[in-house]
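Handout, section 3.2

Students often ask what a structure token actually looks like in practice. Rather than define it abstractly, here is a full record for Ribonuclease H. The first block is the sequence as you would receive it.
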Amino acid sequence: MKHITLFSDGSALGNPGPGGYGTILRFGDKERELSGGEPHTTNNRMELRGVIEGLKALKEPCDVEIVSDSSYVVKGINEWLQNWIKRDFAKVKNPDLWRDYIVASAPHRIKATWVRGHDGHPENERCDTLARGVAEKMKRG
């Protein structure tokens, strides 16, 4: 099984407001960048959307380390998701995206790792740049 590192970050200007995500997929010395956004969204939605889109871009089952500065995403994946599923996402924010995450993550072995944001982590900084760029573009229309 290939080992992939998925770096991701999300941004929303206004929270809610125009938002974007940036994702880097790394396999060995190869990298692929993804980005996208929505005109009216939240930071947490974009953080999670970046992970989902990165996973959907993988063409085969992989061993994936997700690296994010979002405690919401990392704890959601590592700690909270199983209980949310048992409760059928009652009183959980963004259940649509968490259901999308479950589908996108199903073929893979996932481990999520938290990194401090805006702390000089090169891939996190790049993902932030991608995410903010899309959010700014959405804001301009």
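Discussion prompt for tutorial groups: Residues 25 and 96 are 23 Å apart (CA to CA). How would you have guessed this from the sequence alone?
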